[in-house]
Amino acid sequence: MSSGARHLFGSVSTAFRWLDKKLGGRLTPIEAAVLLIAVSTAFMVRSLPAKWGPILSEFDPWWHYRVATMIIERGWSGFWEFREMVDTLSWYPTGLNVGSTFYPGVAFTMAFIYLALSSLGVSVEPVALAAALPVFYGMVTIVIVYFFARYIVGRGAALASVLLLSVSAAHISRTHYGWFDDEALSIPLMHAAFLFYLVAINEKRSLKGSLLFGVISGLFVGYVTATWGAHRMVIAMIPLYTALLTLIGRLNRNLLLSYLATFSTYAMIAVNVPKLGIGYLTEFSMAAGWLIIPYLIAVWLAKERLDEVKSLIVTRGIALAVAILGVTVVALGALDVPGVKFFSVLLPQFRGTLPIVQSVAENQLATWGSLFFDFGPTLLLTPFALYLVAKRRTNEAIFLAVYAILAFYFASSMVRLALPTSPVVSVLAGTTLSYIIEGGFRTLASPAPRIRRRVALESRALIAVPLAILLVVTLYYVPVRAGGVSQYSSIDYAEVPPTVLTSSLPVKQPVLDWTRALEWMKNNLPENAVVASWWDYGNWISRLGNRTSIIDNTTIDSIRIAKVAYAYLSPPNASRPIFKELGATHVLIFVTFAPFVGGQQGGQLLFYGDESKWYWMLKIANQEAGNLGYASIDEASLLGTGGSPTTATDKFWSETTLGLMIPYKPVALGTQTYHVYNPPQIEGYRLVYSSSPPYSPNTYGYVYIYEIVD
């Protein structure tokens, strides 16, 4: 090894030792072993989908992948050209301006890793790298959350926390192989930011150390801001926590300087994210950060000049004035509020004003059942942990309590926010487990009580209770094999094929209709073909089918989405001009259907495809009908008395374009309704592709592509 390399290695080693000391001291061999077990478990569980090959899951990951490959194609200059990138396969005819639409963090990170590896002579397939990165991010999260938990609640609780997090269903759901999305990267960054902020504000820290760690925290917050739309929770959390500490009289020099360093760092990064820009400083999410700076300075001056009682009175008076000022400037429109999608996390009732958001399953309100499925029995251990944390009354304990309360509220408000809540649930559950187990071991190690039988029984109970709790928690994570498929375990979240291989159906075996349709599309449709579909499938059409789509999962233009929806629910003679005005040459629909067993001609629609989604097409079309200059659609005339797609009227099936395109028609038999295949004959449209023949066994999803004819 050269002297330069040795010097570099020595410098890095010294830096890591210094950082480890600041974060709580060196790992013992036992700690390192348990942490390695947690990281290894996280790797093995999250890698399970790799058996289906390097394929991305769901829809949005394909967009992040597309942006990353656009950068890779341009080399290192792609990072600078990001603002001007336009994808012409999406949102025909305008295309999609990548820089103003996407947060760059996910794509930039992958592109940087790929280009760095390439410069070192390491060759890797881009899609394989994209599929594997979420697993790596999940492993990094385990390590960061360990140090985060150890700094707040201690070593034993931290080890229990990461063991639980490694098999957390909520965390696995978006960090498994193929889930190349923003949450997987943002969660470790978020907790690193929180950890370094807590380290920075420690009153024992030197002024130089507080400023340094404050800047490091700001860099991590800025990275999250450039990566994830839900970064608003992070940039609101730090000012809120800082204001709370100030309100209860804990403002000191380190807190003031650390906050200024952290805020100025992440604000500088945020305004340079093309999607946000300088105007983001006036959105309330970011404005909260600078609004409290005068409050902190005023309180600091009061604390320096007044006695303790007067200082506390002034502190709370200024807090009330700042709160009133904030509400006033928002009411007057001087500050922007977040969009409905984000604002509805705070007030879920606003979600009903935006059907396109409400139509997505992961944006729905969480239920007790969904929360328990995400968190399992660990959810039951969190209340006692909050009590234990509250007893400490340290700054770190206050942070964990505030973080937990906000995270639980957000997770109950929106299903998809279970992921960012999973680390804090694991930390709280780990705290309770550690407390109970340590208590049991202390009892076991103490001399057996001989004075009274009642005391002896109580001592045995102290040993039995933690063992029983451990058994309940462990059983939840142990897979039970039923018909060769894992059931009732958090590992279910990982052991599923990528969504495109299941045709977006909730099954564990491949349903290849979409892959066949996309392959046919790529090889048989003209290169200038433009495919109209519901927005759910736009990314697959453009990314995997390599054909131009009109709308997709970015949902940037509600008017165009509503126009497509209106066309689907209009008669063919009205829909055809709309589709042609949009530039479409083909129209795609997706239908889910289960045939009767035994060769009988018939079956049941499953209502996972467009035969169900047209309910939201109807809502979205009517919301924008006035802006489109169209008459509203009579919802009752299509939905029937039941008000749902399952009670669709004859008018839907015989007069709307979508109803006519769905070849499985309802047939009443007594009190039951089943569906029978009828070859579609639609004026102005010609069926050119079906992914499977009618009544195909073990096939539940059917893709149909129609050509628009003159």
Overview of this protein structure:
- This protein is of the alpha+beta class and 710 residues long.
- The protein has a domain at 557-708.
- The protein is built from 29 helices and twelve strands.
- A hairpin with a 2-residue loop joins strand 3 (480-482) and strand 4 (485-487).
- The protein is globular.
- The N and C termini lie far apart (73 Å).
Secondary structure elements and pairings:
Elements (H helix, E strand, L loop, with lengths): L2 H20 L6 H18 L13 H15 L11 E2 L8 E2 H4 L3 H15 L6 H28 L1 H12 L2 H4 L9 H19 L6 H19 L5 H17 L5 H18 L13 H22 L2 H24 L8 H7 L8 H4 L9 H8 L2 H15 L2 H19 L4 H28 L7 H25 L2 E3 L2 E3 L25 H12 L5 E3 L5 H6 L4 E2 L8 H11 L3 H11 L3 E10 L7 E3 L4 H19 L6 H5 L10 H6 L1 H5 L2 E6 L2 E6 L7 E6 L10 E8 L2
Parallel strand pairs: 5-6, 5-7
Antiparallel strand pairs: 1-2, 3-4, 7-8, 7-12, 9-10, 11-12
Short overview:
By secondary structure, this protein is an alpha+beta fold. The chain is 59% helix and 8% strand. It has a domain of 152 residues.
